[in-house]
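Hi support team,

I'm filing this because I wasn't sure whether my run with DGJ finished correctly. The job status page said complete, but I'd like someone to confirm that the output block is well-formed before I use it downstream. Pasting the exact inputs I used:
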Amino acid sequence: MTAVHHDSAARLWMLSTPNSCYVLRLDDQGRLRHLHWGAPLTPDQAAALPYVLDVATNFDGELAEEYPGEGGARFGVPALRVRYADGSRTTVWDHTGHTAEDGRLTLAFRERHGPLALELHYRVHPDSDAVERRALVRHDGTDGEPVLLQQVAAARWTLPLRADYRLSHVTGAWSAENQLTRGPLARAETVLTSRRGITGHQVNPWVAVDAGDAGEEHGEVWSSALAWSGSWRITVERTVHGLVAATHTAGHEGPAVTLAPGGTWETPVSVGVYAADGFGGASRAWHSYARSHVLPRPAELRPVLYNSWEATGFDVGEQGQRELARRAAALGVELFVMDDGWFGARKDDSAGLGDWTPAPDRFPDGLAPLAAEVRRLGMRFGLWVEPEMVNPDSDLYRAHPDWVLHEQGRPRTELRNQLVLNFARPEVAAWAHDWLDRLVREHGVDHLKWDMNRVFTEAGHPGDPDADRLWHDHVRAVYALMDRLRSDHPGLRIEACSGGGGRTDLGILARTDQVWASDNTDALDRIAVQHGYGQVYPPGTMGAWVTDSPNPLTGRALPLEFRFHLAMTGALGIGGDLTAWSEDELARAAELVARYKRIRPVVQHGRLYRLADAVQYVHGPEVVLVAWRLARPHGAPVVPLRMAGLDPLARYRDLDTGELHHGAVLTARGLTTGLTRDHSSRLLHLRQES
Ligand code: DGJ
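And here is everything the job wrote out:
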């Protein structure tokens, strides 16, 4: 079956993925109706689909429209909100044509009363169950009035009718990102949003809805995510009649932009995944989609990195960094990253941001000697940067106080003693490119940890009559800068960071190699952070460090092995003060780093199964299991760990002990983990016998 099927008689379009299908149809009034998103159908079956949500009474008209505007008997969440110069908002869209090729479908419309054109873009891939969508609005008038765009959704995802619904998403805070919440979906408009100019720690731009009957490995799940790193909004509406739809928009409510004659406005991509095999199946579909169609370098085996932040804070200097680098190299670290504090007058967070030259008192000969030493030790060299920020106490701010987001005559709110540079100004983006390009070129920098430690306030752009554009243009300029640096420096890696995981989304993942998932490195707290991260984003992109015990943030002491095992479920890093680790700890750490290198293809590229107090990865014939034990009252039963994703007919050899296990036994009865002490952990590496 072709990926995009068009039935001209029925005025119907069907997008097919390996395990799902998506059906749209023009109704007799020419409105684009959503008919189906779920299990695969044949074209004949799709043509027989009824318009399921036709509960349009005079009182509460309700249509499953694919991309509703305003006007008419519409009372739900609009995908598109515009205001013409004469104040009218009603739009009536006449279908003008479509194109379909190579898994792409574009549906074109013309507004009956005004100069606007609308394109709805869809894309599917032969190896993925993801449906990609975006929208484009064009002002086709040549000398008419501009039109105000108040909302242009990337997509509205409509669900089929079910008796009940549950909503899953993540909430959080700095150092407590990605806490999964799952509960009844209110008969209301549930708004998940960031008004901060960044993706945000508080909630992440994805939702999953099920009928209340899905589990980790069974049941239907409809999930959707917005690929955008600025403010955003996902409104999940559920009406009394059962219509459920999630509308995804870049930007929060309020800011609006004008579309001048000849202008176009394009949304970022919103992606939907239907899975019939539970939340675990949905996550695996997301990971596989991200690896095949989002990540710039999916096949890379993420290097084991060392990061200096928790060891030194801002107190970086050449001798100290050399010592850490020497110890890191001895552990088997492959990439050494010097964090904050290496530039300008940066001795704490009060000064120096924006002055990107090595601090002369700490690096009297510049960074070259340290970079050379790191390479001599056999590691790649990485640096922390925060290009979008400035401390008011900096030479940059003294020279260009107007470069920051601000409103004329209003306060400039400082957070962490810093202000946001307005990347919507071309000269600011050009300045950032200039110094970053030079830094990377001069020092052969292999890795940038790109941080972003504060959110937007007073987001004005004096002199620009369309100032609200900066909410979007800033993000696009950051994307363009990352893209340009990557293309000019093909070996360069970028790690996305925003005070930990504040900028985690599919938009940033399209131009970075990994994400610093949280500043919280306590392995126990990390279990929840990582559980939430992996719902959508692949474990191979999830930076996870082993740090000191007791943990500097939580004060909790945990065994070295436990800290390692939890960090080994993502892209392993080490962030502790290695000068304080004992010889025994360093020796054990070196063994665990070596072990990680053996399992990392499975962890980073495999299929993830979430088990009770364990995660499991399957990659070809290899299986990795990381199991842990939380604090438990004495006498609580210790139950075997039932594994998943194994071939029940196959046998699996333990690569450490040589022991043979039956897939059927590991699945049906489970593995005796032997974890009898609180905060003990176990790593199992199996290979399927051929
Ligand atoms: C916030 C990051 O999340 C930390 O890892 C560290 O890089 C600091 N910023 C440095 O200021």
